[in-house]
Each structure stands twice: as C-alpha cells, then as structure tokens.
Amino acid sequence: MSQQVDEAGADGSVTTSHDGAVLRITLDRQSRRNSLTHTMIQTLVDVLSDAATDYSLRAIHLTGAGTDFCAGADWIATNSPDGERPRTGDLVRRVPHAANRVIELIHTIQLPVVCSVQGWAAGMGCNLALAADFTVATTDAVFWEPFTERGFSPDSGSTWLLPRLVGVARARRMLLLGEQVNGVDAADWGMIHCAEQAATFRNTVEELLARLANGPTVAIGLAKQALDFGQRATLSESMTQELFNLELSCRTSDFKEGLAAFRQRRAPDYKGR
C-alpha cells in the first residue's frame, strides 16, 4: 500500500510504500532533480525514525522519482522565505537535527538500506548514497560533491564517508576540486556496490532487496552495527563488540533455523526474528 507522507505540491514530497517487508522511500521533486526542501528532510527523519522500530520491516529502498536520484539540499528552498540571511548560529542549531540526522539514521539503522541511483546524486544526495549499505547506480549516473565550487565547505557527512570508502586522495579530488564521478568509476573506487546498464539496473536492485529482506534481519543489523563500531575502535575493542553481538544473534529464531538448514542440507527460511 502506498502512502504519500508529505504533500508539498511544487515544493516536492517524500512518498513511502510497504512492499512486503521492504519499505520503499521515494524522493519526488522532479522539477528540481529531487533536491530536498526543509519539509522533505524532516519527513525523511520522521520516516526513518519510525522504520527503526517497525519490526515488520526487513529492508529499506531509497530512490528518486523520474530520471535523477537527488541533487542535494535546495539552498534556495531551505533558506528564509523572505530572503533574509540566516541568523548567526542557525546552521549549528538546525542541521544536526535535520540533514545530519538523516545521514545518521541511514548509516546506523539496524535494517539494510539499498539506494538506487540514476542521473544526479549531488551534495547531500551523494552522501545519502554513500551512507546506504548498498548503492546500485546506472553506469552513467553522476556522483558530485559541489560544496567548494559553491563557495562553502562540505557537510552532511561527506568528509567522514568519502575517505573511508575511496581513500583520502580521491576524497580530495571530489571535495576540494569538485570532480564528478560516473557510476562505473564510483563502483571501481569502492564508493558504491555496483554499476549497471539501464536495462539491468532495476533487476539488480530488486534481486538485492529480495535477498536482504529474506535474510537473518537481526544478524544483519548487528553486523552493520559492528562494522560502524570498528571504524573508530581497536582490533581488541572490535572483537569484544563482536562477542556481545554474537551472544545476541545466537539467541534468535533465525540462528536456530540457520543451523537446522545446514544440518538438513537445505536453504534456510529466515523470518527476521
């Protein structure tokens, strides 16, 4: 069943639908390449926060309507409607609870997030794709961090996400020189999961979503958490965290099903519990 979460007319909307155990989230502001307004960003925060405690869900799909994924946060739409400059401290007070919160939720939610990208993924749109667990792009998609070309410094997690995915040298090319990267190069760099021709793009996304939505959801979520923890921990600390996660995952029904399937030489039938 499809639900339009935010009815914003020409200002864009975020729509969601529950497709079995998959939550599909679509950014829809096609006249502006799905660039995000304040309202759209807040809707994403609300939708992802709700998804975090919805135990009927086992995977999330994030996509853009039309021919583009997302051209970032629309600075014209997100500034004061009367044209006045934001008051001092406005960004420091607002962004952690808006754009930054969206990136954090995608990165930390204990559900696998698949992002499908065609056309432009720029600025915050690029960082949404970087924060997802798996991003599938068309070969001619364009990933771009245009911050310095617009005269301001990078935001929405780009300086944390990019170096960890592609290394510092390539991150500098994107963040300091504004280099645009196509889908093929993004996959070669390890920035995204894979790049596909337009003819096979959607099938690849759906096959990946089906695999994740039928997997051991708790174990996948704990593995995702451990990967994040390991980015800022020692080997010893990471192995200790793995032990706690292992203790939890071994108490799930899916763990018992996995063992039974192994003994019986059959494919497991995981329920996400």
Automatic annotation (TrEMBL):
| InterPro entries named in the record | ClpP/crotonase-like_dom_sf, Enoyl-CoA_hydra/iso, Enoyl-CoA_hydra_C
Q: Which domain of life is it from?
A: Bacteria
**Pfam families under this entry?**
ECH_1
What are the protein's GO molecular function terms? catalytic activity
- Would you identify the family this protein belongs to, as annotated? Belongs to the enoyl-CoA hydratase/isomerase family.
Q: Please state what the protein is called.
A: Enoyl-CoA hydratase
Q: Which organism is it from?
A: Mycobacterium asiaticum
